[in-house]
Amino acid sequence: MNRRQFISYSGIGLAAVAGLSMLDPLAQLPVMSQGKLRNSVKEMHDDISYLLYMASLAPSGHNVQPWTVRLIDKDHWMLGTDATRWLPVVDPQNRETLISIGAFLENLIASAGVKGYEVEVEVVAKSTKDKEVVQIKLHKIGRPISFDVKKIELRRTVRNYFLKEKLSKEDVNFLTGENGDSVFYWARESKEGKYLTERTLLANKLQTYHNAAQEELAKWIRWSKRDSLHYRSGLTPETMEIEGVAKWYVENFYSNQSALTPGFREETIKRVQEQVAAGSGWLLITSKDSSIPELIDTGRKLQRMWLKVRDREIAIHPMNQMLEEESLRDEIAPALGITDKAQILLRIGYIRDYPQPISPRMPLANIMLG
């Protein structure tokens, strides 16, 4: 297999990534500097570590895992974002960052219910660049809510091996029925579906040949096993679904600069062409506006949907490049006949063998602020 063939296996598009099987979170809490907090953490040690780990299995662009948590008290937290894990080129207004915060929050609320907690949420951020976003208060209700937390652990992004089979009417209703005013589905062969396919491919071409966007992507690729274990964030060969000998090759011979070569860019576009040609169609999640509460709510809707599709063997691949490109973003609403703000674009379709989640997660010490 020559080098070009190796590169062809490693072509990727920009997308959110998925979760990891449960690790032991108990040793991952930082030592708190204040005595009151240290005692509080000790009292709720198991629950806090469990809830934060489950919440951290949420998706984020390039798997940057932008969330931070500051413990004010054992049941009073401040959820925020880390500016070093923002994506200023493709997400300059932190729109996708706040959607990821919403997904984190949805995981937290679901897993807290299982532990017998009710979660009180208050959005405190005034700007999308504020470091603290949501105030959280936990209230012990003592009546655990029935929810299969395995759905959180098993959620993942799927990029390849989508079937071209159309979604059944039952599955379309399953995906859109609960939020029919903000979730829209178009079959791949429909006029709208063909439009989204064409423009998503164009958006990928624009980003792939936009040096700043490609450099931002390259920064978050962990080609080697050593880097993957060191950072425990970003995109790995496994999350990009590079397999076999090609995986061994990129792990041992690729560097961040590899993503900037002409050959890599060409093969990225070829891979995206193959991806958009497969699957059942496109799912779009909208919101009334792009305010902070609406973006967080969009993330919660996204995560609720993502947690239930595996049971129906429906795969999800976020492809938001069109919404990240200013020259294309404003045309999507009139082209599709929608009035609200387009926030998340998903390629969806059936898959025969649902893969296990494989993307890394940072230690809780990297999330929590002292």
Can you give me a brief rundown of this structure?
This protein is an alpha+beta fold. The chain has helices at about 5-10, 35-45, 45-55, 95-115, 150-155, 170-175, 190-210, 210-220, 225-230, 245-255, 260-275, 290-310, 320-325, 325-330, 330-335, 365, and strands spanning about 65-75, 75-80, 115-125, 130-140, 185, 280-285, 315-320, 340-350, 370.
Shape: globular
CATH architecture assignment name of the largest domain: 3-Layer(aba) Sandwich
The CATH class of the largest domain is identified as: Alpha Beta
Superfamily (CATH H level) name of the largest domain:
NADH Oxidase
Secondary structure tally, helices = 16
What does this structure look like?
The structure is a single chain. By secondary structure, the chain is of the alpha+beta class. It folds into two domains: about 5-15 and about 155-350, 3-Layer(aba) Sandwich (NADH Oxidase); about 35-155 and about 360-370, NADH Oxidase, CATH 3.40.109. It has 16 helices and nine strands. The protein has a five-stranded mixed beta sheet. Strands 5-6-8-7 form a four-stranded antiparallel beta sheet. Helix 4 (about 95-115) crosses helix 12 and helix 7 runs antiparallel to helix 11. The chain is globular.
